[in-house]
Design goal:
21 helices, 3 domains, 9 strands, Fumarate Reductase Iron-sulfur Protein, Chain B, domain 2, alpha/beta, 381 residues, 5-stranded parallel beta sheet, globular, Rossmann fold
């Protein structure tokens, strides 16, 4: 399939978008909220695609800037009958083939191909977390000879490899659920290559990953990895929050001391965990079981707003990412919650930066907490 054919298969959709002019995608697009330019909405990008198909728009730096100034959050897909994000990724593939990719993105892909990690690190995970007693996983996915027979592989993911406290928290919570996690070698799931339009590199990364992830049933820590293993590899991963939600009756939580009020929190739905994996109720069930007071932001669940750091934008436009994070934290502040809780490493970092800025605006800063550590800290025993 040629570049033109790959984009042309979406022609009916973009013509429908152009003709309907419903503008639903504009309402809460996080990029549009900052840019105030309709070119950056889903409809604006669809118009650009139609221009390419009609020969009126040529691949250029300007076109690349338009399609890379998108967090691929899926907010427009939640408001539309069509899958807009898939078209935008297809346009990114065309741009990469024409040599119009971002250098920062190419560096990420080269890091993955060189080390199996988006940050170019080589970390012996079994050794690192063996101190926590995590059982090793042998090639093929079963327990290593010295490991218990009931070990379930745990795939940590690039973003969490360097966050030892989060991984330790996950191990602690899974054990409280009666599950022994096993940790072995990992290779990046390839999410970054697919999202940024590096089609051939993505194929290579998938091939190399299949040599490492040879099991079908396993537990994942990162929402993006979970989504990609399900969709692109046809495997059967379970996200940690699914496992915890299924085992809530086994867990005992510390409760506020007598006379003390409950902690008031709001939950931020990460794009991959929520819109793509449909795990909306699991984190809410967990938080309610823990005894906190949960209040919702105006935009939640399928209509949640991106933290502002998705789609590769954190590598190319940190200022835009910061403004989007501030907008999300303003919504969180409007709830009156003392803390925002989420479970995506990118969201945590972006929202933390947003909370610092919004805290200065409003004279009161909200905490940003990761659910894994929050659970581990509140487990009894």
């Amino acid at each position: 399939m040629t570049d033109d054919e790959a984009v042309a298969r979406f022609r009916k959709d973009v013509e429908t978008c152009f003709g309907s002019s419903c503008n639903f995608c504009e309402k809460d697009c996080p990029v549009y909220k900052v840019k105030k330019d309709k070119s950056y909405t889903s409809r604006g990008k669809n118009r650009a695609i139609l221009g390419v198909l009609e020969g009126k728009v040529k691949p250029s730096e300007e076109l690349a800037r338009l399609f890379y100034t998108c967090v691929l959050c899926g907010s427009c897909d939640a408001r539309c009958a069509m899958e807009n994000n898939q078209r935008f990724k297809e346009m990114r593939r065309v741009l990469v083939k024409r040599g119009l990719q971002r250098k920062e993105h190419r560096d990420l892909i080269e890091a993955v191909k060189g080390t199996g990690d988006i940050y170019g690190r080589k970390i012996d995970l079994a050794r690192r977390f063996g101190e926590e007693g995590a059982a090793p996983v042998a090639a093929g996915g079963g327990p290593a000879p010295a490991a218990p027979a009931t070990v379930i592989p745990l795939y940590i993911g690039c973003q969490y490899k360097d966050s030892a406290e989060d991984v330790k928290a996950v191990i602690k919570v899974l054990r409280a659920c009666g599950i022994e996690p096993g940790i072995g070698d990992e290779y990046c799931c390839g999410f970054v290559a697919d999202a940024l339009g590096f089609e051939e590199d993505f194929k290579e990364i998938k091939r190399r990953n299949r040599e490492v992830v040879t099991y079908n049933d396993f537990i994942t820590v990162c929402p993006s990895c979970t989504h990609y293993f399900k969709i692109e590899y046809s495997l059967n991963p379970k996200h940690v929050l699914q496992v915890v939600s299924e085992n809530l009756d086994r867990l005992k939580w510390k409760q506020p001391r007598s006379g003390r009020r409950k902690l008031k929190v709001t939950w931020h739905d990460p794009c991959d965990l929520g819109r793509r994996l449909k795990l909306f109720e699991e984190p809410r069930k967990i938080l309610e079981a823990m005894g906190v007071e949960l209040v919702e932001m105006r935009l939640n669940r399928a209509f949640s707003v991106c933290c502002g750091a998705g789609g590769g934008i954190l590598s190319t436009d940190r200022e835009l990412a910061r403004e989007m994070a501030k907008n999300r934290m303003r919504q969180a502040a409007d709830t009156g919650a003392e803390a925002v809780i989420t479970c995506c490493p990118t969201c945590e970092l972006a929202l933390l930066r947003g909370s610092l800025a919004v805290g200065k605006e409003r004279g009161r800063r909200q905490e940003v907490l990761g659910l894994y550590r929050f659970m581990a800290d509140h487990l009894k025993g």
